[in-house]
Each structure stands twice: as structure tokens, then as C-alpha cells.
């Protein structure tokens, strides 16, 4: 995950796996309910900055800082091992050419500071600051990872992990508490989820409909 700030328009931008930079925009419908209702991570809007991870996997995340200030990052619902930190070219990060990771005695943190980028004599970033994290995906859900500077998160510097997509499909939206649904503007609409609406519209999750019965009374002869 590579991040920067677009100073022209005043937004945080994030690139996942070397793809184009995006501003994190949380969809109107909570992604947790969308996924639990049957959507896949790939069907979420690109601006959700969502990445699917499998339940039970050990996950490695590399945070790359293109900004000349440090950034504290936080992942909801998980505490990660910090197994590496320093400076490198972005290409070396993408090609997995970082110094040996600290796999024994690694620190365990829920907030991790990503170093600022290294700059040349003109103040231009030449190497990214990076942090390497590892955690076990043992808690199915939709979890945000974001800069812990509030206004950086507010301008879109973050992403979403969809953890255990198949497990969430099995649970369905009704598995989640009414207290969660109560924060939605339209509880009944949200509980059905995007997949439910697609079924009604004959979309990818549509189900075959039984023929309607004739409601008129038949007269005996």
C-alpha cells in the first residue's frame, strides 16, 4: 500500500499493489453489509480501496510513504507484528528486495509509524519510507486501515480489507446486530444489501421466480 497527499486538490491518495492512486471514499451502503449480502470485493467501487484476504491466512502488508513527514497507521481489529522498517526505492519494494525482515522478537503494535521519504537536495522524495507488517487473518469482517492523523483519514488516506469473504457470505447481513443496522439511514434497505436489490432487479444475484398465481376466484360449473 503506497500513499501520498495530492496537494493540488487536498486529498489523500492510496495505491494498492502498484495500481493507480485512488482517494478512499466509503460507499453509501456499509461494505460489510454489501459483502454479507453476496457481493464480492471486486464488485465494490474502485474508490473503496478494497482488498480481499482469505480467512486463516498469514498476511504481509508493506506501507510505503511518499510524503516528507511520518504517518501513524492503524488497522482495525488486528494487532500486527512490525517485521521491517526503513527506506528503499519504490521499485525495490515492489520487487521484494528489502533488507532481511526481523522475524524473531518483532514488536507487536496496533499503530505503526511509517518513516518519511528520503529527499534530495531539492527536497524531492527519492526513496520511500516503509514499514512491513504481518498479521493473521483470524477475524472475518471488513476492516479499515488508515492514517491515524484524523484529517488525513478524512481526506481519503486509507483502504479496506475484506477478510473472509466466503465466511461473510455464509453469515448473511442478518447475522449482524440491530445496533449496527440502526446507524444506517434506511434500516430495511440496508439489511437487504446491494445483492438483495440486484436480485429484485434481475441482476447477477437474481433467482428464478415462481409464476404468479391467479388471484381471481374460480367459479364452479
TrEMBL record:
<dbReference type="InterPro" id="IPR008972">
    <property type="entry name" value="Cupredoxin"/>
</dbReference>
<dbReference type="InterPro" id="IPR011706">
    <property type="entry name" value="Cu-oxidase_C"/>
</dbReference>
<dbReference type="InterPro" id="IPR002355">
    <property type="entry name" value="Cu_oxidase_Cu_BS"/>
</dbReference>
<feature type="domain" description="Plastocyanin-like">
    <location>
        <begin position="42"/>
        <end position="165"/>
    </location>
</feature>
<keyword id="KW-0479">Metal-binding</keyword>
<dbReference type="InterPro" id="IPR033138">
    <property type="entry name" value="Cu_oxidase_CS"/>
</dbReference>
<dbReference type="GO" id="GO:0005507">
    <property type="term" value="F:copper ion binding"/>
</dbReference>
<feature type="region of interest" description="Disordered">
    <location>
        <begin position="187"/>
        <end position="221"/>
    </location>
</feature>
<dbReference type="InterPro" id="IPR045087">
    <property type="entry name" value="Cu-oxidase_fam"/>
</dbReference>
<protein>
    <recommendedName>
        <fullName>Plastocyanin-like domain-containing protein</fullName>
    </recommendedName>
</protein>
<dbReference type="GO" id="GO:0016491">
    <property type="term" value="F:oxidoreductase activity"/>
</dbReference>
<dbReference type="Pfam" id="PF07731">
    <property type="entry name" value="Cu-oxidase_2"/>
</dbReference>
<keyword id="KW-0560">Oxidoreductase</keyword>
Amino acid at each position: 500500500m503506497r500513499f501520498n497527499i495530492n496537494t493540488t486538490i487536498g486529498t489523500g491518495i492510496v495505491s494498492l499493489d502498484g495500481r493507480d492512486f485512488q482517494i478512499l471514499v466509503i460507499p453509501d451502503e456499509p461494505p460489510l453489509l454489501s459483502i454479507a449480502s453476496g457481493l464480492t470485493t471486486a464488485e465494490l467501487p474502485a474508490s473503496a480501496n478494497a482488498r480481499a484476504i482469505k480467512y486463516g491466512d498469514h498476511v504481509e502488508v508493506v506501507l510505503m510513504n511518499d510524503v516528507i513527514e511520518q504517518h501513524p497507521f492503524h488497522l482495525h481489529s488486528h494487532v500486527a507484528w512490525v517485521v521491517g522498517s526503513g527506506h528503499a526505492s519504490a521499485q525495490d519494494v515492489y520487487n521484494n528486495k528489502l533488507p532481511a525482515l526481523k522475524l524473531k522478537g518483532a514488536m507487536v503494535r496496533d499503530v505503526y509509524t511509517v518513516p518519511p521519504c528520503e529527499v534530495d537536495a531539492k527536497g524531492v522524495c527519492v526513496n520511500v519510507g516503509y514499514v512491513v507488517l504481518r498479521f493473521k487473518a483470524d477475524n472475518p469482517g471488513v476492516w479499515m486501515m488508515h492514517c491515524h492523523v484524523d484529517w488525513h483519514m478524512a481526506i481519503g488516506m486509507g483502504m479496506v480489507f475484506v477478510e473472509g469473504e466466503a465466511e461473510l457470505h455464509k453469515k448473511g447481513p442478518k447475522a449482524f446486530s440491530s445496533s449496527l443496522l440502526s446507524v444506517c439511514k434506511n434500516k430495511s434497505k440496508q439489511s437487504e444489501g446491494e445483492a438483495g436489490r440486484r436480485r429484485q432487479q434481475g441482476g447477477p444475484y437474481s433467482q428464478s421466480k415462481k409464476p404468479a398465481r391467479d388471484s381471481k376466484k374460480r367459479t364452479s360449473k
